[in-house]
What does this fold into?
Amino acid sequence: MTDLPRDPQGGDIPPSAGGETPAPPGRPNWLHRVSGIGEGFWRVLLVPVLALVLALLVGGVIIMVTDVDAWRLMGDDPGSAVGDMLKGVWVAYRELFLGAFGSERAISETLFTASPLILAGLAVAVGFRTGLFNIGARGQMFIGGLSAVWVGLHVDLPAFLHVTLAVMAAIIGGGLWGGLTGFLKARTGAHEVITTIMLNFVAAFFVLYVLKTSLFQEEGSNLPQSAPIPDSARLSPILGDEFRVNIGLFFAIGAVFFVYWLLFKSTLGFEFRAAGFSPNASHYAGMNVAFLYTSVMFISGALAGVAGATMTLGLPPYTVTANFPGTIGFDAIALALLGRSHPYGVLWSGLLFGALIAGGRRMQAAAGVSVDLVIVMQALIIVFIAAPELVRAVFRLRAAEAEPTQLTKGWGG
Amino acid sequence: MALELRGCTKRFPTVIANDDVSLHVEQGEIVALLGENGAGKTTLMNILFGLYSPDAGEVVIDGDQLELADPAASIEAGVGMVHQHFMLVPVFTVAENVILGLEPLKGLDWIDRRAANDLVREVSDRYGLSVDPGALVEDLPVGVQQRVEIIKVLVRDARYIIFDEPTAVLTPQEVEEFFEIVRGLKQDGKGVIFISHKLNEALEIADRIVVLRDGKAVGEADPATATREQLAEMMVGRPVLLKVYKGESSPGDVGLSVEQLVVLDDRGHRTVDGVSFAVRAGEIVGIAGVQGNGQTELVESITGMRASLAGRVFMSGEDVTKHSPRWIHRNGVAHVPEDRQESGLVLEFTVAENMVLDSYYAQPYSRGIQMDWAAATEASQRLVDEYDVKTTRVDVPMSTLSGGNQQKVIVAREFDRDVKVVVASQPTRGVDVGSIEYIHARIVEQRDNGAAVLIVSSELDEVMALSDRVLVMFEGRIAGEFDPATSTTTEVGLAMLGSQVADD
It folds into this structure.
């Protein structure tokens, strides 16, 4: 490592100012000239946006090289073969876009898919800010979601109260599951990456086990699947019954503002961030670092727990199966990275991933391109984010224009 | 035969780090490059070593123009650099580190370890470095690690050797040994550039001193005739007080006392082994000692950061032994920690956030569960002005400030309260001359306001100049007490090494 001078405007958005610090004067590059948008705005968005563009380009290449019909034509008529390939890419991306934004249903699906992603992404982001690498969003979703189901099935209350209590149960269940990791780290120094991964397994098989007991199973059924959650505990749809988007979206947006307030405005958040950057300085400043680890993991787990609740209380047909978190627990890590562990960043990346997944389903149905391409593109976005040098090289940007790349100090232990 | 930099200019987005700087070193000559932190010394050397490409200027070595911005070309041309932070692989042996990148091979792919060991031993013997080629680097003291770096440079046939702040990490004895080595290099015809901000060292070792300020070479001095005052003025750009000016102390009641304190370090050793002393209000007590004799753990224990095994700490007569850092801070203790970057500051935080780092939880910075950033910003602005911290704004990251200004932020934060006890550890380490003067004055001011002041420093000159009483710590015990007005540095220095001379 050479001792390059640090970019004075890099790093955090200063909470005290509550806004952007102006970028140092420099020659505007082609991006600024073309866009007419100031440097400050681009500084934050530059790499993520370019990473998305690159991912779409690479995705296009993948669609082309996997276009078997067009390749057959290549020998006889290369011109029209390439034409077919380009047309294939166009159709796939058109359907992807339409599936994400093309209709009321598409928008509903995007928002519905994004809600738990945003919540789980926030869970990981809060941990990153405190220097903890929470790989356990999946396990916390399991326990939080299951707690919500238990309240849904076993408590009899009027609609509003029932949902509220079920979500509270998710918060507490997920929070305790996450807090356990924080407590173990604070008390014994156990590394959170290890404990959260292991607790993911514990949670997954615990859920599989209890779903086969009479506590959750429908009478007479043998499947590892819960009885239908009563109406009173379901998350109400917000665009009418024919659309899946529900009040989980409000939980997600509310959580974004809560996490922003928590990290940048609250006293506890100041301690979280201080401990994240420097546990030693936090100790010197009289903060109780062990308490901070435990409480931040509780909050992180609680957010993941709510994400779990949206996947149990909000997912038609409202019978809960053994893998209800899906891949969200891990997508959340990617989201937090893409959003630079900033709640607003997580909001936008959650919406982006939601759109990609929702649009991907239509792309598969209408254009015959596998929905797995979306996962490839998500992964590519993260690779490009994690390798900003690559993005800079492709777009010929000067080094000083991109943000420094430190995403987390979580590996330190 | 000489190395020359001609008219080198290097701009960074916000600063001009080097502005038309020229410098030359003959073979067999030691040139000290003196300047405050941030004056552009390291940038200049990185140009020379090919890590940066200058915006203007050229480098000429023995008459040949050097290809710039190419470290390989610099090494080829005979330039070697010993960095401030060593570039060694801790789990490798000395020999393995030395040959890294130019492994002598036996057959096709076997590293010839014997040849490597012989090579290291030969160079080591020739310059009197006494380094064991087979030792693991992680087991070696810092001073010996530095010699491994020197061997690396010598093995690559360097004729011009750059040392970047080489003494910053060394104990006083190691510094003496290091100077001997540098003199040996000179006799062997090497050209040496010695980068430092320490006046005494530049005067002692250099044949010629070049002073850099704000990126410009502001002058040259002959160590035979130059005085410290002249050099300091060239570095800072104004006359500097190198002595600490303080009046007679008027000690009052005991403000801080320690009784039979025993503290373990991280590895469980009794690093503080039954220490007792008292500091009165209105006096400065300095603890001198070679680093690693328990001073760190002593300070951590007094300030609540490390639990003690036995013994007691009293402040104004009250037993505070088991209290938390938060409690101790709230009850009028100003703590300037030993390593400001590691524990005194959060470098990624803004200046304002650091200004409230240990008082954020109370009024007016925190109202209930929410921070009042407007109040914190306002207070920080006032402190920045009052304590002469040089920063453009209070919402820039702490890491953009120089070492001296970072330390002033800590001093401002800790002293801007009703202070009863000051515990300052290495208060001016890595701090530029101008800021040292300022920080010393502030510490004396606290004493005159009636605080009990405890200073811990491995710089003997600093302890002697600042303290009203000097205690020497050796192997976890107080090994002697001295009156700085009547004792000599030699006497105290001997006690630091454990000689039983102090019975008075």
Remarks:
- Confidence is low (pLDDT under 50) at residues 1-28, 400-413 of chain A.
- Chain A touches chain B at residues 2-3, 5-12, 14-18, 21, 24, 26, 261, 265-271, 273-274, 277-278, 280-287, 400 (CB under 8 Å).
- The two ends of chain A are 22 Å apart (CA to CA).
